[in-house]
Amino acid sequence: MKQPGTSGLIFNEPQLWEKSREGRCAISLPRAEVERAEFDPSLTGDAPDLPQLSELDVVRHFTRLSQWNFGVDSGMYPLGSCTMKYNPKTNEVQAARQGFAGAHPLTGDEFSQGALRLMYELEQLLGEITGFPAVTLQPAAGAHGELAGMLMIHAYHAKQGRQRSKILIPDTAHGTNPASASLCGYESINIKSGPDGILEPEAVAAVMDEDTAGIMITNPNTLGLFENNIKEVCEIVHAKGGLVYGDGANMNAIMGVVKPGDLGIDVLHLNLHKTFSTPHGGGGPGSGPVGVVDKLIPFLPVPRVERDLDTYKFVTDCPDTIGRMHTFYGHFGVLVKAYAYILSMGGEGLTNASKYAVLNANYIKESLKGTLNLPYDRPCMHECVFNDKHQQEYHITTMDMAKRLLDYGFHPPTVYFPLVVDAAFMVEPTETESKEYIDQFIDAVKAIAKEAAETPEKLKKAPMLTKVTRLDEVTAARKPCLRG
Ligand SMILES: *Cc1c(COP(=O)(O)O)cnc(C)c1O
User: Whose CA is nearest to atom 14 of ligand 1?
Assistant: First the structure.
């Protein structure tokens, strides 16, 4: 099969100031009817140093810069844990509609009924998908949702009259989990996962006590595995008065198949910028809604959206609330996209999205398991984790193979994470890649493994076809050179 590769033109492009020519201009305005006045720096200070360019200079500049970039619109982006999937453009169009994009948060409830209704209904929809009776849309990201959830757990224990000091966190949890627990003043107790890569109830029972506020479980975990013992783990934690935080950033693996609320989880965040149609990784706004069980509802952030017959309103009068997590009501544009996505997919569509995400990951796992080492050889969820053990005899590392994938036209997968696997190579194809693209990726990895055995010295130089070749990563991060 033909690889996408990266042969073709990659233009050099100087800064706009270097392209600037005195008197060149991109607009032609009608002749003014007033007399031309000279610029007087004593009144206005020096004129800004703006480049003088034609329209074509500007168009080429930005088009060329965009071609140095790589995104899911240009090719497969199998970055594990990040869900870099294709998001239908129609949802962007809905969010950009004048009524939504032009809505002002100070307009007041009376004139914002449509926006409030959308938020109310989105809360209901996310509650149905996750199995929780109430949801807040305020947090701006996954980790921010974790913080909101942990603050609610903290407030819950305070309300019970006795604060607890510790939180249990398995070694397969996302790295943001212990950070969120620490921000609430909890000490994180690390639990080792078992030989299958999942939590063992005995390990939880051994450390769970009445000074432990709860546990934070990423499910599916960062190995891409479903926590099969989760119900038992929840029971152990509940029996000692603890609460269970579920990291649901990877909900794209289980939508319509299992509801975290049914498993015994008390509070869970979602990443709308992974599962629900906001592009991830572009540095734009995200959203991390949080669902809770009944006993945590009083602690939800304010304002809450409530419905009174056919009118919707914001409510702030909640005495036990943890307060605000964000100015106004969170990232509204992201909420519009999630709402449009959920309604256009429907229940069956969302369920199929999860099933395809899991099917695609398992197809890659089975296709590559002889080529790369697979430390946990069992059915995976939306992502699979390999490492470079088979390539070690040629002194080829995960990093070398990831860099070479760029030459084959693929964004590399996540590397060296999760930490439980040495030199991890973690692939998340997502549900939006077709079999043809996935096969190209598999062929590329196989071709690279062959190069590792036959011409390892060449692989050490990869990438060779990109605009810049192998960089010293530390210097590139510490002293970035953005001139191209
Ligand atoms: C991405 C992710 C997070 C963090 O989400 P952000 O929006 O980047 O803060 C947390 N947990 C898991 C499992 C994730 O995959």
Answer: 249
AA letter at 48? P
Please write the tens of the pLDDT for every residue from 227-277: 999 999 999 999 999 999 999 999 999 999 999 999 999 999 999 999 999
Lookup: tokens for 31: 């002749």
**Total structural domains in the chain?**
2
Provide the β-strand partners of residue 244.
215
Q: What is the CATH number of the domain that holds 114?
A: 3.40.640.10
How far, in Å, CA of 222 to CA of 217, rounded? 10
User: Do 160 and 267 reside in the same domain of the chain?
Assistant: yes
- One-letter amino acid for residue 392 of the chain: Q
Question: What is the reported pTM?
Answer: 0.92
Q: Is 250 in the pocket of ligand 1 (CB under 6 A)?
A: yes
The protein residue whose alpha carbon is closest to atom 3 in ligand 1 is: 142
Residue 135's domain spans which residues? 90-344
CB-side neighbour CA atoms (13 Å) of 411: 24
8 Å CB contact between 250 and 163: no
Q: 451: Cβ below 6 Å to ligand 1?
A: no
Q: How far is CA 388 from CA 346, 396, 425, in A?
A: 40, 7, 8
Indicate if ligand 1 lies below 6 Å from the C-beta of 141: yes
Please work out whether the CB of residue 430 comes within 6 Å of at least one atom of ligand 1: no
Question: What is the C-alpha to C-alpha distance for residues 134 and 264, in angstroms, rounded to an integer?
Answer: 15
Task: For 79-130, write each residue's pLDDT tens digit.
Answer: 999 999 999 999 999 999 999 999 999 999 999 999 999 999 999 999 999 9
